[in-house]
Amino acid sequence: MSKFWSPFVKNLVPYVPGEQPKLSRLVKLNTNENPYGPSPKAIAAMQAELNDSLRLYPDPNGERLKQAIADYYGVQSRQVFVGNGSDEVLAHIFHGLFQHGRPLLFPDVTYSFYPVYCGLYGIPFEVVALDEQFRIRVEDYQRPNGGIIFPNPNAPTGCLLPLEAIERLLKANPDSVVVVDEAYVDFGGATAITLVDRYPNLLVTQTLSKSRSLAGMRVGLAVGHPELIEALERIKNSFNSYPLDRMAIVGAAAAFEDRAYFEQTCRQVIASREQLVSELQRLGFEVLPSAANFVFARHPGRDAEGLAAGLREQGVIVRHFKQERIRQFLRITIGTLEQNQALIDVLAPLC
Ligand SMILES: Cc1ncc(COP(=O)(O)O)c(C=O)c1O
Protein backbone atom coordinates (compact mmCIF):
# COMPACT_ATOMS: atom_id res chain seq x y z
CA MET A 1 0.00 0.00 0.00
CA SER A 2 1.18 3.49 -0.78
CA LYS A 3 0.34 6.75 0.97
CA PHE A 4 -0.85 7.99 -2.42
CA TRP A 5 -3.73 5.51 -2.63
CA SER A 6 -7.28 6.59 -1.88
CA PRO A 7 -8.03 4.73 1.38
CA PHE A 8 -10.66 2.34 -0.07
CA VAL A 9 -8.14 0.89 -2.55
CA LYS A 10 -6.42 -0.91 0.32
CA ASN A 11 -9.49 -3.07 0.87
CA LEU A 12 -10.28 -3.92 -2.75
CA VAL A 13 -10.24 -7.64 -3.59
CA PRO A 14 -9.89 -7.70 -7.41
CA TYR A 15 -11.23 -10.41 -9.70
CA VAL A 16 -8.69 -12.98 -10.90
CA PRO A 17 -9.24 -13.87 -14.57
CA GLY A 18 -8.34 -17.30 -15.95
CA GLU A 19 -4.79 -17.61 -17.15
CA GLN A 20 -3.88 -16.37 -20.67
CA PRO A 21 -0.69 -18.40 -21.15
CA LYS A 22 2.11 -17.24 -23.40
CA LEU A 23 2.83 -20.75 -24.70
CA SER A 24 1.03 -21.38 -27.97
CA ARG A 25 0.93 -25.17 -28.10
CA LEU A 26 -1.39 -25.56 -25.15
CA VAL A 27 -4.91 -26.98 -25.36
CA LYS A 28 -6.60 -24.00 -23.74
CA LEU A 29 -9.89 -25.00 -22.14
CA ASN A 30 -9.90 -22.62 -19.17
CA THR A 31 -11.68 -19.36 -20.04
CA ASN A 32 -14.73 -20.38 -22.08
CA GLU A 33 -13.59 -18.83 -25.32
CA ASN A 34 -15.03 -20.11 -28.60
CA PRO A 35 -12.84 -22.68 -30.39
CA TYR A 36 -13.99 -21.34 -33.77
CA GLY A 37 -12.99 -17.91 -35.04
CA PRO A 38 -15.32 -14.93 -35.41
CA SER A 39 -17.64 -14.65 -38.41
CA PRO A 40 -15.60 -13.96 -41.59
CA LYS A 41 -18.03 -11.08 -42.20
CA ALA A 42 -17.12 -9.58 -38.82
CA ILE A 43 -13.43 -9.85 -39.66
CA ALA A 44 -14.00 -8.24 -43.07
CA ALA A 45 -15.96 -5.38 -41.47
CA MET A 46 -13.17 -4.74 -38.98
CA GLN A 47 -10.52 -4.86 -41.69
CA ALA A 48 -12.49 -2.34 -43.76
CA GLU A 49 -12.54 -0.03 -40.75
CA LEU A 50 -8.74 -0.08 -40.48
CA ASN A 51 -8.19 3.13 -42.37
CA ASP A 52 -7.73 6.87 -42.05
CA SER A 53 -11.04 7.22 -40.16
CA LEU A 54 -9.24 5.93 -37.05
CA ARG A 55 -8.05 9.49 -36.46
CA LEU A 56 -11.67 10.31 -35.59
CA TYR A 57 -13.45 9.29 -32.39
CA PRO A 58 -16.03 6.54 -32.79
CA ASP A 59 -19.78 7.11 -32.38
CA PRO A 60 -20.12 7.53 -28.59
CA ASN A 61 -23.53 5.82 -28.79
CA GLY A 62 -22.47 2.85 -30.90
CA GLU A 63 -25.77 3.32 -32.74
CA ARG A 64 -24.87 1.01 -35.63
CA LEU A 65 -24.36 -1.83 -33.17
CA LYS A 66 -27.38 -0.99 -31.03
CA GLN A 67 -29.55 -1.12 -34.14
CA ALA A 68 -28.11 -4.49 -35.22
CA ILE A 69 -28.87 -5.90 -31.76
CA ALA A 70 -32.34 -4.32 -31.71
CA ASP A 71 -33.11 -5.83 -35.14
CA TYR A 72 -31.85 -9.23 -34.05
CA TYR A 73 -34.06 -9.32 -30.95
CA GLY A 74 -37.03 -7.33 -32.27
CA VAL A 75 -36.69 -4.54 -29.70
CA GLN A 76 -36.04 -0.80 -30.02
CA SER A 77 -32.51 0.56 -29.95
CA ARG A 78 -33.40 2.68 -26.89
CA GLN A 79 -33.84 -0.60 -25.03
CA VAL A 80 -30.21 -1.52 -25.77
CA PHE A 81 -26.99 -0.55 -23.98
CA VAL A 82 -23.52 -1.51 -25.24
CA GLY A 83 -20.18 -1.51 -23.45
CA ASN A 84 -16.60 -2.70 -23.37
CA GLY A 85 -17.31 -6.35 -22.62
CA SER A 86 -20.22 -7.42 -20.46
CA ASP A 87 -17.92 -6.98 -17.46
CA GLU A 88 -18.05 -3.23 -18.02
CA VAL A 89 -21.81 -3.35 -18.60
CA LEU A 90 -22.17 -5.29 -15.33
CA ALA A 91 -19.98 -2.76 -13.49
CA HIS A 92 -22.29 0.06 -14.62
CA ILE A 93 -25.32 -1.98 -13.56
CA PHE A 94 -23.91 -2.52 -10.07
CA HIS A 95 -22.99 1.16 -9.85
CA GLY A 96 -26.22 2.58 -11.24
CA LEU A 97 -28.95 0.13 -10.25
CA PHE A 98 -27.91 -1.84 -7.15
CA GLN A 99 -26.95 0.82 -4.62
CA HIS A 100 -30.09 0.91 -2.50
CA GLY A 101 -28.70 0.03 0.94
CA ARG A 102 -30.52 -3.33 0.91
CA PRO A 103 -28.50 -6.47 0.12
CA LEU A 104 -28.05 -7.62 -3.44
CA LEU A 105 -28.86 -11.34 -3.82
CA PHE A 106 -26.92 -13.83 -5.94
CA PRO A 107 -26.17 -17.58 -5.76
CA ASP A 108 -23.42 -18.94 -3.49
CA VAL A 109 -21.82 -20.59 -6.52
CA THR A 110 -21.76 -18.09 -9.39
CA TYR A 111 -19.68 -15.66 -11.43
CA SER A 112 -16.97 -14.53 -9.05
CA PHE A 113 -16.93 -10.96 -10.37
CA TYR A 114 -20.24 -10.16 -8.59
CA PRO A 115 -18.77 -9.85 -5.07
CA VAL A 116 -15.85 -7.89 -6.55
CA TYR A 117 -18.20 -5.21 -7.93
CA CYS A 118 -19.99 -5.14 -4.56
CA GLY A 119 -16.62 -4.43 -2.94
CA LEU A 120 -15.80 -1.74 -5.48
CA TYR A 121 -19.10 0.11 -5.08
CA GLY A 122 -19.79 -0.63 -1.40
CA ILE A 123 -22.91 -2.71 -2.07
CA PRO A 124 -24.05 -5.09 0.70
CA PHE A 125 -24.86 -8.58 -0.57
CA GLU A 126 -26.20 -11.95 0.57
CA VAL A 127 -25.45 -15.21 -1.18
CA VAL A 128 -28.33 -17.65 -1.65
CA ALA A 129 -27.36 -21.33 -1.63
CA LEU A 130 -28.01 -23.38 -4.75
CA ASP A 131 -29.87 -26.63 -4.05
CA GLU A 132 -28.15 -30.03 -3.77
CA GLN A 133 -28.12 -30.40 -7.56
CA PHE A 134 -26.57 -26.91 -7.91
CA ARG A 135 -29.80 -25.41 -9.24
CA ILE A 136 -31.24 -21.98 -8.43
CA ARG A 137 -34.43 -22.17 -6.30
CA VAL A 138 -36.38 -18.99 -7.04
CA GLU A 139 -38.45 -19.31 -3.84
CA ASP A 140 -35.27 -18.57 -1.87
CA TYR A 141 -35.09 -15.08 -3.44
CA GLN A 142 -38.33 -13.93 -1.77
CA ARG A 143 -36.72 -11.79 0.90
CA PRO A 144 -35.95 -8.07 1.18
CA ASN A 145 -33.29 -7.14 -1.37
CA GLY A 146 -31.79 -4.26 -3.31
CA GLY A 147 -31.58 -6.30 -6.53
CA ILE A 148 -31.00 -9.83 -7.82
CA ILE A 149 -28.41 -11.08 -10.30
CA PHE A 150 -27.48 -14.51 -11.64
CA PRO A 151 -26.07 -15.93 -14.86
CA ASN A 152 -28.38 -18.11 -16.95
CA PRO A 153 -27.05 -20.67 -17.59
CA ASN A 154 -25.21 -20.25 -14.31
CA ALA A 155 -21.42 -20.14 -14.24
CA PRO A 156 -19.42 -22.18 -13.44
CA THR A 157 -22.11 -24.87 -13.14
CA GLY A 158 -23.68 -24.56 -16.63
CA CYS A 159 -27.16 -25.25 -15.17
CA LEU A 160 -30.12 -23.56 -16.84
CA LEU A 161 -33.11 -21.92 -15.16
CA PRO A 162 -36.27 -22.13 -17.32
CA LEU A 163 -37.92 -18.85 -18.40
CA GLU A 164 -41.03 -19.79 -16.48
CA ALA A 165 -39.01 -19.73 -13.21
CA ILE A 166 -37.49 -16.36 -14.18
CA GLU A 167 -41.01 -14.99 -14.64
CA ARG A 168 -41.97 -16.20 -11.16
CA LEU A 169 -38.91 -14.42 -9.77
CA LEU A 170 -39.78 -11.19 -11.62
CA LYS A 171 -43.38 -11.28 -10.36
CA ALA A 172 -42.27 -11.92 -6.77
CA ASN A 173 -39.79 -9.00 -6.87
CA PRO A 174 -41.57 -6.16 -8.72
CA ASP A 175 -39.65 -3.49 -6.79
CA SER A 176 -36.18 -4.88 -7.50
CA VAL A 177 -34.09 -4.91 -10.63
CA VAL A 178 -33.51 -8.53 -11.68
CA VAL A 179 -30.45 -8.95 -13.91
CA VAL A 180 -30.11 -12.13 -15.97
CA ASP A 181 -26.51 -12.47 -17.15
CA GLU A 182 -26.82 -14.46 -20.37
CA ALA A 183 -23.13 -14.76 -21.23
CA TYR A 184 -23.71 -18.42 -22.26
CA VAL A 185 -27.39 -18.51 -23.24
CA ASP A 186 -26.81 -19.22 -26.95
CA PHE A 187 -25.42 -22.67 -26.18
CA GLY A 188 -28.70 -24.14 -24.97
CA GLY A 189 -30.97 -21.62 -23.27
CA ALA A 190 -33.85 -19.37 -24.26
CA THR A 191 -33.20 -15.66 -23.83
CA ALA A 192 -35.19 -13.64 -21.29
CA ILE A 193 -35.07 -10.67 -23.73
CA THR A 194 -38.50 -11.90 -24.89
CA LEU A 195 -39.80 -10.82 -21.44
CA VAL A 196 -38.40 -7.26 -21.26
CA ASP A 197 -41.52 -5.59 -22.70
CA ARG A 198 -43.63 -7.16 -19.94
CA TYR A 199 -41.29 -6.66 -16.97
CA PRO A 200 -39.85 -3.16 -16.45
CA ASN A 201 -37.64 -4.55 -13.66
CA LEU A 202 -35.84 -7.03 -15.96
CA LEU A 203 -32.41 -6.34 -17.43
CA VAL A 204 -30.67 -8.95 -19.58
CA THR A 205 -26.93 -8.81 -20.28
CA GLN A 206 -25.07 -10.68 -23.01
CA THR A 207 -21.56 -10.79 -24.40
CA LEU A 208 -19.98 -11.26 -27.83
CA SER A 209 -17.03 -13.02 -26.17
CA LYS A 210 -18.54 -16.50 -26.23
CA SER A 211 -21.10 -17.45 -28.89
CA ARG A 212 -19.87 -14.75 -31.30
CA SER A 213 -16.21 -15.48 -30.66
CA LEU A 214 -15.08 -11.86 -30.14
CA ALA A 215 -13.51 -12.06 -26.66
CA GLY A 216 -10.55 -10.08 -27.98
CA MET A 217 -12.74 -7.16 -29.12
CA ARG A 218 -14.48 -6.64 -25.74
CA VAL A 219 -18.14 -6.08 -26.54
CA GLY A 220 -21.09 -6.62 -24.21
CA LEU A 221 -24.69 -5.45 -24.08
CA ALA A 222 -27.78 -5.06 -21.93
CA VAL A 223 -31.43 -5.06 -23.01
CA GLY A 224 -34.26 -3.76 -20.83
CA HIS A 225 -36.75 -0.99 -20.18
CA PRO A 226 -35.55 2.41 -21.52
CA GLU A 227 -35.52 3.79 -17.96
CA LEU A 228 -33.01 1.13 -16.86
CA ILE A 229 -30.94 1.79 -19.99
CA GLU A 230 -30.99 5.52 -19.24
CA ALA A 231 -29.34 4.90 -15.84
CA LEU A 232 -26.55 2.96 -17.58
CA GLU A 233 -26.08 5.70 -20.19
CA ARG A 234 -25.73 8.26 -17.40
CA ILE A 235 -23.06 6.20 -15.67
CA LYS A 236 -21.26 5.51 -18.95
CA ASN A 237 -21.29 9.16 -19.95
CA SER A 238 -19.85 10.07 -16.56
CA PHE A 239 -17.06 7.52 -16.97
CA ASN A 240 -15.96 6.98 -20.60
CA SER A 241 -17.84 8.40 -23.59
CA TYR A 242 -16.25 5.96 -26.06
CA PRO A 243 -16.12 2.48 -24.53
CA LEU A 244 -16.34 0.83 -27.97
CA ASP A 245 -13.80 1.64 -30.65
CA ARG A 246 -14.58 1.85 -34.36
CA MET A 247 -13.59 -1.73 -35.08
CA ALA A 248 -15.58 -3.14 -32.18
CA ILE A 249 -18.73 -1.34 -33.32
CA VAL A 250 -18.65 -2.55 -36.93
CA GLY A 251 -17.29 -6.02 -36.10
CA ALA A 252 -19.92 -6.69 -33.46
CA ALA A 253 -22.72 -5.40 -35.70
CA ALA A 254 -21.56 -7.68 -38.53
CA ALA A 255 -21.37 -10.61 -36.10
CA PHE A 256 -25.02 -10.07 -35.15
CA GLU A 257 -26.00 -9.81 -38.80
CA ASP A 258 -24.28 -13.06 -39.79
CA ARG A 259 -26.88 -15.38 -38.30
CA ALA A 260 -25.92 -18.39 -40.41
CA TYR A 261 -22.32 -18.50 -39.15
CA PHE A 262 -23.43 -17.89 -35.56
CA GLU A 263 -26.01 -20.67 -35.65
CA GLN A 264 -23.63 -23.13 -37.31
CA THR A 265 -20.78 -22.57 -34.83
CA CYS A 266 -23.15 -22.75 -31.84
CA ARG A 267 -24.46 -26.09 -33.16
CA GLN A 268 -20.89 -27.37 -33.49
CA VAL A 269 -20.04 -26.37 -29.92
CA ILE A 270 -23.22 -28.04 -28.62
CA ALA A 271 -22.49 -31.27 -30.53
CA SER A 272 -18.92 -31.20 -29.24
CA ARG A 273 -20.22 -30.71 -25.70
CA GLU A 274 -22.54 -33.69 -25.88
CA GLN A 275 -19.69 -35.86 -27.09
CA LEU A 276 -17.34 -34.62 -24.36
CA VAL A 277 -19.97 -35.28 -21.69
CA SER A 278 -20.24 -38.95 -22.78
CA GLU A 279 -16.46 -39.34 -22.82
CA LEU A 280 -16.14 -37.84 -19.33
CA GLN A 281 -18.93 -40.05 -18.03
CA ARG A 282 -17.13 -43.05 -19.51
CA LEU A 283 -14.09 -42.09 -17.38
CA GLY A 284 -16.30 -42.07 -14.28
CA PHE A 285 -16.96 -38.32 -14.02
CA GLU A 286 -20.23 -36.91 -12.75
CA VAL A 287 -21.11 -34.05 -15.13
CA LEU A 288 -23.72 -31.40 -14.27
CA PRO A 289 -26.28 -30.83 -17.05
CA SER A 290 -24.79 -28.00 -19.13
CA ALA A 291 -26.48 -25.46 -21.39
CA ALA A 292 -23.19 -23.56 -21.80
CA ASN A 293 -19.93 -23.84 -23.73
CA PHE A 294 -18.29 -25.55 -20.77
CA VAL A 295 -18.99 -28.48 -18.49
CA PHE A 296 -18.60 -28.74 -14.73
CA ALA A 297 -17.50 -32.20 -13.70
CA ARG A 298 -16.16 -34.13 -10.70
CA HIS A 299 -14.59 -37.53 -10.36
CA PRO A 300 -15.64 -39.46 -7.24
CA GLY A 301 -12.19 -41.00 -6.81
CA ARG A 302 -9.78 -38.26 -7.93
CA ASP A 303 -8.85 -34.90 -6.42
CA ALA A 304 -9.78 -32.09 -8.83
CA GLU A 305 -6.81 -29.89 -8.06
CA GLY A 306 -4.47 -32.84 -8.70
CA LEU A 307 -6.21 -33.60 -11.98
CA ALA A 308 -5.93 -29.96 -13.10
CA ALA A 309 -2.20 -29.97 -12.26
CA GLY A 310 -1.70 -33.30 -14.06
CA LEU A 311 -3.44 -31.97 -17.16
CA ARG A 312 -1.41 -28.79 -17.09
CA GLU A 313 1.86 -30.73 -16.99
CA GLN A 314 0.85 -32.20 -20.31
CA GLY A 315 -0.25 -28.96 -21.90
CA VAL A 316 -4.01 -29.02 -21.26
CA ILE A 317 -5.41 -26.22 -19.10
CA VAL A 318 -8.82 -26.27 -17.45
CA ARG A 319 -10.20 -24.16 -14.58
CA HIS A 320 -10.27 -25.22 -10.94
CA PHE A 321 -11.80 -23.06 -8.18
CA LYS A 322 -10.58 -23.34 -4.59
CA GLN A 323 -14.02 -22.62 -3.24
CA GLU A 324 -16.30 -24.39 -0.82
CA ARG A 325 -18.82 -26.81 -2.41
CA ILE A 326 -16.99 -26.87 -5.76
CA ARG A 327 -13.43 -27.77 -4.75
CA GLN A 328 -13.74 -31.18 -6.38
CA PHE A 329 -15.00 -29.89 -9.72
CA LEU A 330 -13.20 -29.00 -12.92
CA ARG A 331 -14.67 -26.47 -15.32
CA ILE A 332 -13.77 -27.51 -18.82
CA THR A 333 -14.40 -25.27 -21.84
CA ILE A 334 -15.75 -27.05 -24.91
CA GLY A 335 -13.09 -27.13 -27.59
CA THR A 336 -13.06 -28.54 -31.10
CA LEU A 337 -13.51 -32.31 -31.38
CA GLU A 338 -9.72 -32.58 -31.68
CA GLN A 339 -9.08 -30.48 -28.55
CA ASN A 340 -11.64 -32.48 -26.59
CA GLN A 341 -9.95 -35.69 -27.70
CA ALA A 342 -6.55 -34.32 -26.61
CA LEU A 343 -8.07 -33.61 -23.18
CA ILE A 344 -9.53 -37.11 -22.89
CA ASP A 345 -6.26 -38.72 -24.01
CA VAL A 346 -4.37 -36.94 -21.21
CA LEU A 347 -7.14 -37.35 -18.63
CA ALA A 348 -7.82 -41.08 -19.10
CA PRO A 349 -4.54 -42.32 -17.54
CA LEU A 350 -5.03 -39.92 -14.59
CA CYS A 351 -8.45 -41.42 -13.69
C1 LIG B 1 -21.19 -15.26 -16.27
C2 LIG B 1 -20.31 -14.31 -16.97
N1 LIG B 1 -20.72 -13.06 -17.15
C3 LIG B 1 -19.95 -12.15 -17.79
C4 LIG B 1 -18.70 -12.48 -18.27
C5 LIG B 1 -17.86 -11.41 -18.90
O1 LIG B 1 -17.69 -11.53 -20.23
P1 LIG B 1 -17.09 -10.36 -21.13
O2 LIG B 1 -16.59 -9.28 -20.22
O3 LIG B 1 -16.02 -11.00 -21.91
O4 LIG B 1 -18.23 -9.88 -21.97
C6 LIG B 1 -18.23 -13.77 -18.11
C7 LIG B 1 -16.89 -14.13 -18.61
O5 LIG B 1 -16.40 -15.19 -18.56
C8 LIG B 1 -19.04 -14.71 -17.45
O6 LIG B 1 -18.61 -15.96 -17.23
Structure description:
- This protein is of the alpha/beta class.
- The chain has two domains: 7-37 and 260-350, Aspartate Aminotransferase, domain 1; 45-258, Type I PLP-dependent aspartate aminotransferase-like (Major domain) (Aspartate Aminotransferase, domain 2).
- Helices cover 34% and strands 13% of the residues.
- The protein contains ten helices and twelve strands.
- It has helices at 40-49, 63-73, 85-97, 114-121, 163-172, 226-236, 246-257, 259-282, 304-313, 337-347; strands spanning 27-28, 80-83, 104-107, 125-128, 148-151, 178-181, 202-207, 220-224, 286-287, 294-298, 316-317, 329-333.
- The strands form four sheets. A five-stranded mixed sheet has the order 2-8-7-6-5, sandwiched between helices. Strands 9-10-12 form a three-stranded antiparallel sheet.
- It is globular and about 55 Å long.
- The structure holds pyridoxal-5'-phosphate (PLP).
- Residues 32, 85-87, 111, 151, 155, 181, 183, 207, 209, 215, 220 line the site of pyridoxal-5'-phosphate.
- Residues 32, 85-87, 111, 151, 155, 181, 183, 207, 209, 215, 220 line the site of pyridoxal-5'-phosphate (PLP).
- It catalyses: L-histidinol phosphate + 2-oxoglutarate = 3-(imidazol-4-yl)-2-oxopropyl phosphate + L-glutamate.
- Belongs to the class-II pyridoxal-phosphate-dependent aminotransferase family. Histidinol-phosphate aminotransferase subfamily.
- Homodimer.
